[in-house]
Amino acid sequence: MLQLDELRTGTAARGRSRAALVVPSVAAALVDTGLIIVATFLAAWGRRELRLFDTAGDLDSNLSIAAVPIVALWLLNLGGTGAWAPHLFGAGSAEYKHVLRASVFAAGWIGIACYLTRFPLSRGFFFLLFVIGVPLLLVGRYALRATLHVLRRRGHLQQKVVLAGTPRQVDEIAGVLHRERWLGLNVLGAVVPTPDGSGETPRGLAVLGPTARTGAIVTSSGADVVLFAGGAVTSAQEMRRAVWELEETGVNILISPSLTDVASDRVRSRPAAGLPLLELEGPSASRPRRMLKRVFDVTVTSMLVLAFAPVLLVVALLVKLGDGGPVLFTQQRVGRQGRPFGVLKFRSMVVGADTLTATMRNKHDVDHVLSKDEDDPRITRVGRVIRRYSLDELPQLFNVLRGDMSLVGPRPPLQTEVDRYDMDVHRRLTVLPGMTGLWQVSGRADLSWEDSVRLDLYYVDNWSMTQDLLILARTVHAVVSRRGAY
After folding, report:
1. CA–CA separation, 263 vs 273, rounded Å?
2. Which domains does the chain have, with CATH numbers?
3. What are the DSSP calls for 57-71, one per residue?
4. What is the value of pTM for the model shown?
5. Residue pLDDT tens, the chain, 486 long
6. Please, what sign has the CA dihedral across residues 93, 97, 100, 103?
7. Measured between alpha carbons, how far is 420 from 411 in angstroms, rounded to an integer?
8. Which is nearest to 383 in space by CA: 428, 347, 411, 413?
9. What is the C-alpha to C-alpha distance for residues 391 and 393, in angstroms, rounded to an integer?
């Protein structure tokens, strides 16, 4: 049994970290409440001004009766469906799905209540309430998530984590948690089955002791989470005993199933005779979904070409006036299944730049496949500006319409890059390359080669239309921030 003083010390330390779970939930509830109230006022104003579904009845008197119950019912559905659950915040699409599900339920309950009570709620108001309210809630959650990520990266709202497992396993997980600081999991150290006496793992993570003393170590360190990785225990009985011991500490227990870079949508719990099995679905890029993606690409790209037509003309004129050379530059790239195609770009380098590669200085390691230099002397003055805002890539909209590319996908590589791929990296070529993707919205050229590959492979294995929409939304921020663009 744990010593009483140790238990009190650990409990007090964990109490200081509860804000990491409580603050996002409370903030989400407050933001949702405010936005639903705003949507209610906007829907009433819109119904009055637009006169949608105009019918007899006093709109103001009806709303004075129905407004509070409507707001309360919507909030009850958000709370009842778990839209404020602490584990939802910060990652994945589950948070947005809960908001959508709760909103659908709220619309259904409001409609049923009005029908049963014969309450003359304005149809125009009802329509506008959800047309305005649902997007507002989603935008609010997106803004809240972005704020939460910023706070976590700055060291706030962190949960303290102890990793349990073999040195190799805990090093791998520690690397992910350190890289993705927005997750808010601060690694204190590791407990390993048989410490070698060096005091740290091969990658420098502090070893706090053996797994046999996990309970005592967690208590004394004030950890909030224990994450069990591969090799932490040797049997189900040993795992069960470890969980029993940790029950007294009040920490959260996470178990890593040795799966990395797998979207939560592909993993389902499937209990069988007391075994908590995880069922892993195959990649979702099936033929029907690829057809849906293609329809989406053509539709959205056509609208973007029309919207950006003035920008395309202005940039083309600036490039031409800059040095009198060609406006467009066509570069051979490798597409889906290794098929080459010509990527269209506004020319941002001097004419004949391909013959001047000897003057470049690669900012990455010598074994880095990507080759991009922030101070490349071949870039023209106009080219430097259009690269900063990714305007040089706008002609690739026509590559999308032609079917060589998609709006979202892995970066289209050069043949020289593909020649250096190992077996795993070739999986990037199983889907159409994209104008934007996880690589582009996560730092672009500032990322290491390892991170670039990891993001592209994650996209290939976990593609979904929801993810594409989120990437497109993040692309706007990435272009404006200009991080890694040169």
Report:
1. 26
2. 19-153 (no CATH), 158-258 (3.40.50.1980), 287-352+360-481 (no CATH)
3. S-HHHHHHHHHHHHH
4. 0.67
5. 344 444 444 454 455 466 777 899 999 999 999 999 999 999 988 887 777 665 545 566 677 788 899 999 999 999 999 999 888 888 777 888 899 999 999 999 999 988 898 888 888 888 999 999 999 999 999 899 989 999 998 888 888 999 998 888 888 888 888 888 888 889 999 998 887 777 888 888 999 988 888 888 888 888 888 998 877 777 777 888 888 888 877 788 888 776 666 666 666 666 666 666 666 666 655 677 788 899 999 999 999 999 999 999 999 999 988 888 889 989 899 999 899 999 999 988 887 766 665 445 444 444 444 555 556 778 888 888 888 888 899 999 999 999 999 999 998 988 988 988 888 888 889 889 999 988 778 765 556 777 788 888 888 888 888 888 888 888 877 676 655 454
6. negative
7. 15
8. 347
9. 5
- Provide the token pair at 483: 């991080």
Distances in whole angstroms, Cα of residue 231 to Cα of each of 238, 330, 464: 11, 51, 33
Give dist(CA 37, CA 410) in Å, integer. 41
- CB crowding 95-129: b at 16 or more within 10 Å, else e: bbebbeebbebbbeebeeebeeeeeebbebbbbbb
